[in-house]
Design brief:
With 433 residues, the protein is an alpha+beta fold. The protein is built from 11 helices and 18 strands. It folds into 2 domains: 154 residues, Chloramphenicol Acetyltransferase, CATH 3.30.559; 219 residues, Chloramphenicol Acetyltransferase, CATH 3.30.559.10. Strands 3, 4, 6, 9, 10, 11 and 16 form a 7-stranded mixed sheet that branches. A 6-stranded mixed sheet has the order 12-18-17-15-13-14. Strand 7 and strand 8 form a beta hairpin. The protein starts with a strand and ends with a helix. This is Omega-hydroxypalmitate O-feruloyl transferase.
Length: 433
Amino acid sequence: MENGKHSVAIELTVKQGVPSLVSPAEETEKGPYYLSNLDQNIAVPVRTIYCFKSEEKGNDNAAEVMKDALSKVLVHYFPLAGRLTISQEMKLIVDCSGEGAVFVEAEANCNIEDIGDNTKPDPVTLGKLVYDIPGAKNILEMPPLVAQVTKFKCGGFVLGLCMNHCMFDGIGAMEFVNSWGEIARGLPIKVPPFLDRSILKPRNPPKPEYTHNEFAEIKDISDSTKLYQEEMMYKAFCFDPEKLEQLKAKAKEDGNVTKCTSFEVLSAFIWKARTQALQMKPDQKTKLLFAVDGRSRFDPSIPRGYFGNGIVLTNALCTAAEIVENPLSVAVKLVQEAVKLVTDSYMKSAIDYFETTRARPSLTATLLITTWSRLSFHTTDFGWGEPIVSGPVALPEKEVSLFLSHGKERRSVNVLLGLPASAMKTFEELMEI
């Protein structure tokens, strides 16, 4: 196992206790709970870990504190204590049964430092810190929220969460975890959840007004499916403020772009390099997908504390030659146009488009970027201070690249992605700027 700079000979062993169900501390609403169309097409489990260690405070009562606070926070977030099911319209909904979230106590055979610095997802090692429902064949057999608290020999502990993305996006998940922490510290919740998702219901009748290329099926003329049969390699690439400035200067060289954000230039740079590394044919169509937070872009804007997905996928679509053979500014321009695309009418059209087609975003010849760099998961505090490390256990799909903020000031961005081994070698060379 790599621990940042040196290898550690310890293999993490975790002994899990018997799982229990944590129900809301008070009686809550029962019955069906509506999930919007923005929730429907990202119903995947997301596994994250938070590592805590306090010099003054050991981990003796960590599980007890976490469990008690979970029971109280579920009063506010009661759908998380329910179970996913399918409605008569053949859509996902939550049956608010109050059955409870799954909670597991566990013990590790080593110190918290021995699990490494988590700069890249490691499903094998870090996966041991998140409880998997035995025999669950699909998301309907997995509770929306599963929590595991693993105590380490050094007095630290790790909270491992498996939460379904259909329950919330990054902002919603962050608000939930932070509220749980506030209750654990005996504080009132700063941002109470706004539970009514019917505010994002499709129009009646639905009227999609855009082409929505995010769902477009692309023909794989480069045979990259074959390449993906190779062993996958996962790596993290750090872009500090200086590197980000260099990229921006490069994007502005030909005067085609006068200004761009770190996200725009980094997305363009990664998309271009990945297309090149995968040796896509010049006329291969390639797509970039990324989520834009629609909370303030809706008219009227979504209420604060909205408990659900307020993100909308936007896209850029072109041939491989267009981005590989042209200066970086061309790819940056495409990213900027994709950001501009997300208006109130575009988002309402996306909701209506799903209503009429039930389409899922296609990932052939596609890079899907998900950005966590603006999410303050690192500020979560259950009474043991902020986490020394927090992050994902694995990337949800092989086409996904994750942007995480990094470093003391959080001004650097860590780019995590997986590629077939041969493509990764080329990609690493292209990262040298």
